[in-house]
Amino acid sequence: MTTDQLQAHFDTKIEADISIEAKDWMPDAYRQNLIRQIGQHAHSEVVGMLPEANWITRAPTLRRKAVLLAKVQDEAGHGLYLYSAAETLGCTRQDIYQKLLDGTMKYSSIFNYPTLSWADIGVIGWLVDGAAIVNQVALCRASYGPYARAMVKICKEESFHQRQGYEAVMALSKGNKAQRDMLQDAINRFWWPTLMMFGPNDSDSPNSAQSMAWKIKRFSNDELRQKFIDNTVPQLEALGMTAPDPELVWDETTGHYHFGEINWDEFYQVLKGQGICNYERLEAKRRAWDNGKWVREAASVHAKKIAARKQAA
Ligand code: BYC
Fold first, then answer.
1. I need a surface site. Which of 60, 126, 183, 275 has the fewest CB within 10 A?
2. DSSP for 15-50?
C-alpha cells in the first residue's frame, strides 16, 4: 500500500473507533505524540511514589501503614504497565527513563509539592487520585489499544486509592480541632495544584486539538477539570471543609460550579523546574538509578547466562 492508502486506512479506523494496535501502520506524529504522553504518564506514576513514600514510616497506625505501602507499590505497577505500553511504540524504556532523569521529559506538576503532614496523604488519595481517575477513565477509550487497556487496570486501582484517601480524610474531619485544621491546611495547599493536573486551559493547550482528532484524548483539559470540580465539591462539603477559592459557587444557569482563575504562572514555573520539590524529586530518581546499577548488571548477566544455556541445549 502507498503511504496515502495507509493513512486513509488509519483515518477510517480512527473514525470508526477501531483500536490502533502496536503492529498497525500509524503516522509518525501519532506515534511520537503517544510516546510523549504515555512516557510522561509513566514517569508521573513513579515520581508520584516519592511524596507518599515520605510518610510510610510515619503512618499513624499499622493499618494505615499497610494500606499506604500497598498503594505506593500499585503506583510502581502503573509505571510498569505504562512503560510497557510506550515500548510497544518502538521506544526503549531505558531511553525515555533517561529523558526523565536528564529533565527532557516531563512528569505531572503535582508531584513537585511537598507532603508536610499526614493529612496530605489522605488529600493526595482523595484529590490527586480523584483527579487522575477523571482524566484516566476517559483514556480507557483512547484510540491506541495498549494504552487504553493499561488504563482499565490502572483505573480500577486508582478507584481504590481514591476511596482510601477519602476514608482517611473522613477520619480526620471527624477528629479534634488540630486534626481538622491539619486537614484544612492540606486541602488549601493541594486544591489549586490538583486543578493544574488537567493541564493548561484549552485555548493554551498546544497538543489538545490533534490529540482529540486522533481520539487519544476524548475530552478537553477544561471539560475534565470542570467534571472533577463538579464531582468533588459535594465531597468537600460533606467533610465540612472549604476550598481556598472565594469564587467557588454553584451556577444554576450552567449547571456547574464556577471557580476562580488558576495561577498559571505558578504552573509554568513548576513545569520549568522551579517548583518546591523539582530538584529533590529528580535527585531521588537519579540516586535510585545509580544505586540500582549493580542490580541491572546482575540481571543482565543472569539473562545472558539463561540465553546461552538455551542456545546450547
Ligand atoms: N504537569 O497541550 P497540553 C497519578 C504539559 S499520576 C506537567 O494540554 P496534553 C498518581 C504537557 O505535557 C497521573 N506537565 O498537553 C501517581 C505539554 O508539554 P509537552 C498523571 C503538564 O498532553 C502516583 C504542555 O504542558 N496523569 O495519578 O495534550 C501517586 C501543554 O499541555 C501538565 C497523566 O499523566 C501537568 N499537570 O494534555 C498518586 C495523564 N499538564 O509534552 C497519583 C495522562 C500539561 O508538549 N496525560 N502539561 O512538552 C494526559 O492526560 C495529558 O498529557 C494531560 C496534558 C492532560 C496531562
1. 60
2. HTTPPB-TTS---HHHHHHHHHHHHHHHHHHHHTHH
What are the pLDDT digits (tens) for 70-86? Answer: 999 999 999 999 999 99
- Classified as helix, coil or strand, 211 is helix
**The model scores a pTM over 0.85:** yes
What residues does 249 pair with on adjacent strands? Answer: 258
Residue-range definition of the domain harbouring residue 185: 3-312
pLDDT tens track for 165-190? 999 999 999 999 999 999 999 999 99
Q: Which atom of ligand 1 is nearest to the CA of 136?
A: 39
Using the mean position of ligand 1's atoms as its centre, give its distance from the Cα of residue 218 in Å. Answer: 14
Q: Is 197 exposed, middle or buried (0-12, 13-18, 19+ CB in 10 A)?
A: buried
Cell numbers given for 66:
499497610
Cα 178 to ligand 1 centre (Å): 35
Pocket of ligand 1 contains residue 196 by CB under 6 Å: yes
| Per-residue pLDDT reduced to its tens digit, 111-133 | 999 999 999 999 999 999 999 99
Confidence of residue 313 (pLDDT cuts 50, 70, 90): confident
Averaged pLDDT for residues 136-142: 97
Radius of gyration of the chain (CA): 21
How many angstroms from the chain centroid is the CA of residue 63? 25
**139 C-alpha to center of ligand 1: Å?**
12
199 Cα–ligand 1 center, Å:
6
Tally of structural domains, the chain: 1
Residue 138 belongs to domain with CATH number? 1.20.1260.10
